[in-house]
UniProtKB/TrEMBL annotation:
Residues 6-145 form the Endoribonuclease L-PSP/chorismate mutase-like domain. Coiled coil: none annotated. CDD domains: YjgF_YER057c_UK114_like_1 (cd02199). This is RidA family protein. Pfam families: YjgF_endoribonc (PF14588). Transmembrane segments: none annotated. It comes from Sinorhizobium numidicum. PANTHER family: ENDORIBONUCLEASE L-PSP_CHORISMATE MUTASE-LIKE DOMAIN-CONTAINING PROTEIN, ENDORIBONUCLEASE-RELATED. Gene3D superfamilies: RutC-like (3.30.1330.40).
Amino acid sequence: MSAEIETRLTELGIVLPQAAAPAANYVPYVVSGSMLYISGQLPMEAGKVAVTGHVGKDVDVAAAQRAAELCAINILAQAKAALAGDLGRIRRLVKINGFVASVPEFTEQHLVINGASNLLASVLGEGGKHARAAVGLASLPFNAAVEIDAIIEIG
């Protein structure tokens, strides 16, 4: 399956970045038994947060969806690091939790997190269909517009 995932990434024009180091006192991932827990990933691109501000004020839905895609790419980069480069060990993406910095009247967090859900399903195929939460909140670290964590079953 690793070759299939790598092929899909190539077809989508996605090059996974180096997995980002944690920004505080935590680890970027934990493997426990057959589960891989990925800490919250920000929309990092070229070493910096690419999409900042509040959705519904500074950031429109399309830009926020791009932020969610970047978070998903960074989740895959962390998974690759955790699995010694072998994405084929992914059996199923179990769940993602999506956090959207948004103004109080914004109610389309689910559409924002679709950016990540769509990308992960495209890359991982059937095993990329997952449960999720999409939550709006007042702010995120580094003024990021979106943050997403993940729970992945591995073999």
